Amino acid sequence: MRSRLVLALAWTLLAGAPLHAQQLPGRDPVSDQLFPPELVMSHQKAIGLDEGQKSYIRGELLGAQTRFTQLQWQLQDAMEALVTALRPAVVDEAQVMIHLERVLTSEREIKRTQLGLMVRIKNRLTPEQQSRLQRLRGKSR
Protein backbone atom coordinates (compact mmCIF):
# COMPACT_ATOMS: atom_id res chain seq x y z
CA MET A 1 0.00 0.00 0.00
CA ARG A 2 2.74 2.43 0.98
CA SER A 3 4.75 1.78 -2.18
CA ARG A 4 1.61 2.37 -4.26
CA LEU A 5 1.11 5.74 -2.59
CA VAL A 6 4.74 6.65 -3.21
CA LEU A 7 4.52 5.60 -6.87
CA ALA A 8 1.22 7.44 -7.33
CA LEU A 9 2.72 10.60 -5.85
CA ALA A 10 5.82 10.21 -8.02
CA TRP A 11 3.70 9.75 -11.13
CA THR A 12 1.64 12.82 -10.26
CA LEU A 13 4.77 14.92 -9.91
CA LEU A 14 6.30 13.57 -13.14
CA ALA A 15 3.15 13.79 -15.22
CA GLY A 16 2.44 17.36 -14.18
CA ALA A 17 5.84 18.73 -15.18
CA PRO A 18 6.21 19.29 -18.95
CA LEU A 19 9.63 19.64 -20.58
CA HIS A 20 8.82 23.17 -21.72
CA ALA A 21 7.22 26.28 -20.31
CA GLN A 22 4.22 26.61 -22.63
CA GLN A 23 2.49 24.22 -24.96
CA LEU A 24 -0.50 24.18 -27.21
CA PRO A 25 -3.41 22.13 -25.93
CA GLY A 26 -2.82 18.49 -26.86
CA ARG A 27 0.57 19.24 -28.46
CA ASP A 28 4.06 18.85 -27.12
CA PRO A 29 6.45 20.83 -29.32
CA VAL A 30 9.52 19.16 -27.80
CA SER A 31 8.21 15.64 -28.39
CA ASP A 32 7.13 16.63 -31.89
CA GLN A 33 10.82 17.14 -32.77
CA LEU A 34 12.07 13.85 -31.32
CA PHE A 35 11.39 10.16 -31.82
CA PRO A 36 10.77 7.76 -28.97
CA PRO A 37 12.84 4.58 -29.29
CA GLU A 38 9.74 2.41 -29.59
CA LEU A 39 8.54 4.45 -32.59
CA VAL A 40 11.90 4.08 -34.32
CA MET A 41 12.19 0.37 -33.63
CA SER A 42 8.59 -0.41 -34.59
CA HIS A 43 9.17 1.24 -38.00
CA GLN A 44 12.76 0.19 -38.56
CA LYS A 45 12.05 -1.45 -41.92
CA ALA A 46 9.80 1.35 -43.14
CA ILE A 47 12.49 3.96 -42.47
CA GLY A 48 15.36 1.77 -43.65
CA LEU A 49 17.45 1.50 -40.50
CA ASP A 50 20.79 -0.09 -41.29
CA GLU A 51 22.54 -2.59 -38.99
CA GLY A 52 24.88 0.07 -37.61
CA GLN A 53 21.97 2.28 -36.63
CA LYS A 54 20.10 -0.64 -35.04
CA SER A 55 23.17 -1.66 -33.07
CA TYR A 56 23.77 1.92 -31.91
CA ILE A 57 20.14 2.41 -30.83
CA ARG A 58 20.09 -0.95 -29.00
CA GLY A 59 23.24 0.02 -27.12
CA GLU A 60 21.83 3.42 -26.20
CA LEU A 61 18.59 1.82 -25.04
CA LEU A 62 20.39 -0.68 -22.84
CA GLY A 63 22.43 2.08 -21.25
CA ALA A 64 19.37 4.25 -20.72
CA GLN A 65 17.35 1.37 -19.25
CA THR A 66 20.09 0.73 -16.71
CA ARG A 67 20.16 4.42 -15.82
CA PHE A 68 16.34 4.59 -15.62
CA THR A 69 16.30 1.66 -13.21
CA GLN A 70 18.85 3.37 -10.95
CA LEU A 71 16.93 6.62 -11.10
CA GLN A 72 13.60 4.96 -10.37
CA TRP A 73 15.05 3.42 -7.21
CA GLN A 74 16.52 6.79 -6.27
CA LEU A 75 13.19 8.50 -6.91
CA GLN A 76 11.27 5.93 -4.89
CA ASP A 77 13.65 6.36 -1.95
CA ALA A 78 13.31 10.14 -2.16
CA MET A 79 9.51 9.92 -2.36
CA GLU A 80 9.34 7.60 0.65
CA ALA A 81 11.48 10.03 2.64
CA LEU A 82 9.23 12.92 1.58
CA VAL A 83 6.07 11.05 2.56
CA THR A 84 7.62 10.13 5.92
CA ALA A 85 8.55 13.78 6.53
CA LEU A 86 4.93 14.79 5.81
CA ARG A 87 3.37 12.32 8.28
CA PRO A 88 3.71 14.15 11.63
CA ALA A 89 0.92 16.42 12.81
CA VAL A 90 3.46 19.25 12.83
CA VAL A 91 5.69 19.09 9.79
CA ASP A 92 9.25 20.39 9.64
CA GLU A 93 9.04 22.53 6.52
CA ALA A 94 12.80 22.76 6.06
CA GLN A 95 13.11 18.96 6.11
CA VAL A 96 10.22 18.58 3.67
CA MET A 97 11.91 21.02 1.28
CA ILE A 98 15.16 19.05 1.49
CA HIS A 99 13.29 15.86 0.60
CA LEU A 100 11.35 17.62 -2.12
CA GLU A 101 14.61 18.83 -3.65
CA ARG A 102 15.84 15.24 -3.77
CA VAL A 103 12.62 14.17 -5.51
CA LEU A 104 12.91 17.00 -8.03
CA THR A 105 16.58 16.21 -8.65
CA SER A 106 15.69 12.59 -9.44
CA GLU A 107 12.85 13.67 -11.73
CA ARG A 108 15.12 16.14 -13.50
CA GLU A 109 17.74 13.44 -14.05
CA ILE A 110 15.10 11.06 -15.45
CA LYS A 111 13.99 13.73 -17.91
CA ARG A 112 17.59 14.56 -18.86
CA THR A 113 18.29 10.89 -19.51
CA GLN A 114 15.12 10.51 -21.57
CA LEU A 115 15.74 13.65 -23.61
CA GLY A 116 19.40 12.79 -24.14
CA LEU A 117 18.45 9.33 -25.42
CA MET A 118 15.96 10.74 -27.92
CA VAL A 119 18.44 13.38 -29.12
CA ARG A 120 21.11 10.72 -29.71
CA ILE A 121 18.61 8.58 -31.60
CA LYS A 122 17.51 11.52 -33.76
CA ASN A 123 21.12 12.38 -34.53
CA ARG A 124 21.71 8.83 -35.81
CA LEU A 125 18.81 9.07 -38.27
CA THR A 126 19.20 10.59 -41.69
CA PRO A 127 16.97 13.54 -42.62
CA GLU A 128 14.99 11.18 -44.89
CA GLN A 129 14.46 8.70 -42.06
CA GLN A 130 13.31 11.54 -39.81
CA SER A 131 10.82 12.68 -42.45
CA ARG A 132 9.47 9.16 -42.83
CA LEU A 133 9.04 8.86 -39.06
CA GLN A 134 7.22 12.19 -38.94
CA ARG A 135 4.80 10.95 -41.60
CA LEU A 136 4.34 7.60 -39.87
CA ARG A 137 3.74 9.31 -36.55
CA GLY A 138 1.19 11.64 -38.19
CA LYS A 139 -0.76 8.65 -39.51
CA SER A 140 -1.00 7.09 -36.06
CA ARG A 141 -2.33 10.25 -34.38
Could you spell the SSE succession in H and E letters?
A: HHHHHHH
Biggest β-sheet: count, sense, barrel?
A: none
CATH topology: Four Helix Bundle (Hemerythrin (Met), subunit A)
What would CATH call the class?
A: Mainly Alpha
Task: Supply the helix-strand structural class.
Answer: mainly alpha
The dominant shape is elongated
Strand content: under 5%
Q: Roughly what percent helix? A: over 70%
Query: What's the helix count?
Result: 7
- Going by CATH, the architecture would be Up-down Bundle
Q: Distance between the terminal alpha carbons, to the nearest Å?
A: 36 Å
**Strand elements, count:** 0
From the alpha carbons, calculate the radius of gyration and give it in angstroms: 19 Å
Structure description:
- The protein has helices spanning about 1-15, 30, 35-40, 45, 50-85, 95-125, 125-140.
- The protein has one domain: Four Helix Bundle (Hemerythrin (Met), subunit A) (Up-down Bundle).
- Residues about 5-25 have low confidence and may be disordered.
- With about 140 residues, it is mostly helical.
- Helix 1 (about 1-15) packs across helix 5.
- The chain contains seven helices and no strands.
Task: List its salient traits.
single chain, 141 residues, mainly alpha, Four Helix Bundle (Hemerythrin (Met), subunit A), 0% strand, elongated
